[in-house]
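=== How it folds ===
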Amino acid sequence: MMRVLSSGAAIVVMATAASAQTPPAQQPPTTIPIAIQRAYATIKTNLTQAADKMPEADYGFKPSTMPEMRVYGALFSHIAQSQFGTCSLVNGVPNPMQGRQLETELTTKAQIVAALAQSFALCDQAYASLTDANATELITGGRGGPTARAALLANNVTHDNEMAGTAYVYLRAKNIVPPSTENAAAARGGGGGAGGRGRGAGAPPGQ
């Protein structure tokens, strides 16, 4: 009996030792295109959710009396307009919103959300087309002269993040938890506030 137990223990020890010696699975390298695509996917989620979170009645809200500040809905019309320009350029297709002024034309939440979704559909193609082989390909036709494909798409992500940060101020002013905070809390297994309203426990300030 002791021999059987000893043999079993030896097998467990050997198996544990062998397991410990097995190298962990190698993660694929994060190339510039992959990093840009991941950043785009994150900001697309955050902006789509931010547009949805604010009630339509507050789409005309802005947390200041300064005339140069946009109302909430205009933030997303601006994002859509910018994305149409950038991603149509990257895709090599005509800008479907060329000559239009979405910030003044779109007046309802439904119109603005639809335009934002349409701009993201165009950008989905642009970001999916980014590869190691074409990342440095120069694209002409933009305002800044010939620019690398990866740089154009990275600049779009930067602009989107800047606009998201602005939108989050508006959401906080209405006591609504921004999606980036809510999603981070959910990933940690915490709550982000009932129905997206109210400040979740432990939510970082200003996010």
